[in-house]
Amino acid sequence: METSTAKPAVEQKQKGTKEAAKGHPSGDKRFRVLDMTMKRNQYRPDALIEVLHKAQEAFGFLEEDVLIYIARGLKLPLSRVYGVATFYHLFSLKPGGAHTCVVCLGTACYVKGSGEVLSALEKHAGISQGETTPDGQLSVMTARCIGACGIAPAVVFDGTVAGKVTPEEAIAKVGAWLNSPQEATVSG
Ligand code: FES
């Protein structure tokens, strides 16, 4: 399993354009998809729904960090972005699980077996995509191309992109989470 949290090397190559040099400080390539969508719409506030769509496709769900990024990009109050994201049922905000696992079902990943990875995870955790385990430990989500096609099939475990993931590796990763719940409150 390959992971890539650090700044992608590709970013270095694209230094030429100022636009490409922008992006999220985390270096997460998925924000570049948002940049491109916002740019294509000339950062117009009325592109909000389209940008939210892209974000949901790229991240699997909308977390606060992403919503803040979009609000800044489109120069909209965060409250408005939240309002729209929560109003429409097609958008899902960050799932409730302590850990999240987002399986990419984009074409490149799908042909490399991400469907099997997802099925294995669903079976192992006893939930379907979009759901959280009853103990609140794990949410399994899906995305459509997270910008890591070169290392397909890609899965994002708690915000870290892992590539060439096999069903066994995915199960081992989430299995550790399911078996060791976070600090249960030990009341005295
Ligand atoms: S299709 Fe999965 S990263 Fe592009």
Descriptive overview:
This protein has 188 residues and is α+β, with helices and mostly antiparallel strands. Strands 1-6-5-2-4-3 form a six-stranded mixed sheet, sandwiched between helices. It is 44% helix and 13% strand. Helix 3 (30-40) runs parallel beside helix 5 and helix 8 (114-125) packs parallel to helix 9. The protein is built from nine helices and six strands. FE2/S2 (inorganic) cluster binds next to helix 7.
Q: What's the arrangement of secondary structure elements?
A:
Blueprint lengths: L1 E3 L4 H5 L4 H4 L8 H11 L7 H12 L4 H10 L4 H10 L11 E6 L2 H5 L2 H12 L5 E2 L5 E6 L11 E3 L2 E4 L3 H13 L9
Parallel strand pairs: 2-4
Antiparallel strand pairs: 1-6, 2-5, 3-4, 5-6
Largest sheet: 6 strands, mixed
Question: What does the average pLDDT come to?
Answer: 84
- Form type: globular
Got a strand count? 6
How many helices does DSSP assign? 9
- Calculate Rg over CA atoms: 17 Å
What are the distinct ligands in this entry? Answer: FE2/S2 (inorganic) cluster
Strand order of the largest sheet: 1-6-5-2-4-3
Euclidean distance between termini CA atoms = 41 Å
Helix and strand succession? EHHHHHHEHHEEEEH
